[in-house]
Amino acid sequence: MDPMLEPGVLTLAATPIGNPLDASVRLLRALEQAELIAAEDTRRLHRLADALEVTLTGKVLSYHEHNEAERTDVLLEALAAGRSVLVVTDAGMPVVSDPGFRAVQAAVEAGHRVTVIPGPSAVLTALAASGIAPDRFSFEGFPPRRDGKRHATFAPLAEERRTMVFFESPRRTAATLAAMAEDFGPQRRAAVARELTKTYEEVVRGTLAELVAWAEGTEVLGEIVIVVAGAEPRAASAEELLPVVLERAAAGERLKEAAKAVAAGAEGVSSRELYDLALAARA
After folding, report:
1. Residue 275 · residue 259 · CB < 8 Å
2. Model confidence over 88-102: pLDDT tens digits?
3. What is the distance between the alpha carbons of residues 53 and 55, in angstroms, rounded to a whole number?
4. Sheet holding 137-141, edge to edge
5. pTM summary value
């Protein structure tokens, strides 16, 4: 079998987010060949290996948020010694809301090559199944746990035009949806995806108000991804457009022509309304 991993190279590998059969052939070979595997949860790694009928021949090292700083030095020592190092997390891609970023930073700074074995993604899977526009989106990770900080996070996102993707724990899903309904508006479209790729996979779609009622009326279980539609563009009012008209007129354009030009690029505002407001502002 050709070697999948290169000596002295840090490899990040995506693992299945639920169904073990989603594991790629590259992942299987990397698990078999890696001389050092840094795993978020070593027990879950061994369960995955058993499900995939893969024999781990390298050393397995726990690598999670509580020991990431100190264990990164161990990874660097292995890379410097020319060993193949593989980083995996419990599900999905390392680094993305999971351990691995410190290792990547340190490896790059030390001059080691970093490569990635792509694979399952909860973000993209939920986005594709949500029924919400996927052309432009932002990944927002886990919202803060406390209500005040949660609102402080959501408030600046109220006018975000891109679709937003969040992770959340099942026990906080109802509270998070309620906060979203308050900050984004109860009629904003959204979807809650849970247990993706697993036996009880479910995607619940509706307005945030409808999803709040669903979450409060059921026991939410499993890994949760929340997809929220971006804000609809808001039409500017005549008062908001007035400074633009006055600025054009101050630059030498006739007031009536300035009002007509600005109204032509606006929705629901007439040139006459802008002209009258401009005249009143000049008086």
Report:
1. yes
2. 999 999 998 889 999
3. 7
4. 137-141, 163-168, 224-228, 189-194, 202-207
5. 0.81
